[in-house]
Amino acid sequence: MRRQLVRLHRWFGVATALFLFVAGLTGAIIAWDHELDAALNPSFYRARTAGPTLSSLELANRVEAADPRFQVTYLPLAVEPGHTLQMMVLPRTDPATKRPYPLDFNQIAVDPVTGEIQGRREWGAVSLARLNLIPFIYKLHYTLQLPFTGGVDIGTWLMGIVGIVWLVDSVIALCLSFPSRKAWRKSFAFRLKRGGHALTFDLHRSGGVWIWGLLTIVALTSISMNLSSQVVRPIVSRLSTLTPDPLNNPEILRTPQPGERMLSRERIVELAEQARQEMHVAAPPGGLYYAEFMHAYGVGFYTPGNDHGDTGLGNPWMYWDAVTGKRLAAQIPGRGTAGDIFMQVQFPLHSGRILGLGGRILISSVGVAVAMLSVTGLLIWLKKLNARRRSAQNANLARSAGGATARW
């Protein structure tokens, strides 16, 4: 049995090593995406003008009026002092061609005092330019920058499958790390003085043992991040009732109908404020999102700069039909069934934000460790592969020599 497990661990490790190396290093970086992006691109983050700021809703109306080629699809409802207001945009349909206007950007940074657009970029574009570097790394982390093909997000599926293999391999690795009760101490030791292959082996085996629990959490949550509706939610729903996911609920997903008049963003914010008071949500409406594929508005409740949810289970979100104003769904962290809370905890655990700053430091360190385990695993495999090849070559030479002696 152990021989079969060793073989599985070897091939699972080789198959996923490159993917986990990339995911580990990029994950260590994007734990600090906001801070790094702001340090690299101060002109995209710092407002040029000091003074009283316009409301976010007014700013969105102004930039849309100034450039009718696009519509604002994500809008922070308040701005951090001295910062730009960063909006996500999508192209409108050109009446002449019946096709979306060609745009080379999907994010803009707006001066909140003047309404001037200070910067534009294509978030997630394949580019190593300073302006695009951190969004590029962020998207690389979970999609490998692979495109949609035939309506399928190849990168997200691939990284989700890698997560499944990684989770299974983590269990196999733990079994292999403790071959007997008497030798269990060796699985926690590092032979620092010996160096070379012995240290490489210990970094891989013992290093993995010491942080095995964290690695398992990251592997499980990576599956949830990439294959939530396809894999995780169907499994969890067998154990606990789940509130329907508003972004994947066929009962509320619909396409806009010709002639429909959408509610204004101002009206949606009014509805959000009413709902906040009714449902006793502490944070104010902090971000407004238009989900075109379901023809609905989503509102997140958070303070300026806390759009990721810096501690706990993240931010509340509610959704309204863009035409009727009917409330479609609400996701309030800490409320719901056991299954709902399990799903709510996935991103905070994966990002480390559930523990605040300390959690982000921890998850960044785990990312580096994942990259190290991938490299040491490949080095061990290559050493054993070379040893097997030399052994086979020596055996062939011995047989050849034996045959020649027999003929002589």
TrEMBL record:
Query: Which InterPro entries does this one have?
Result: PepSY-ass_TM
**Domain of life of the native organism:** Bacteria
Which Pfam family is one of those matched by this entry? Answer: PepSY_TM
Ordered alphabetically, the record's keywords are:
Membrane, Transmembrane, Transmembrane helix
Write out the transmembrane intervals.
12-32, 154-178, 209-227, 361-382
Q: Give the matching PANTHER family.
A: BLR4505 PROTEIN (PTHR34219:SF5), IRON-REGULATED INNER MEMBRANE PROTEIN-RELATED (PTHR34219)
The protein's name: PepSY domain-containing protein
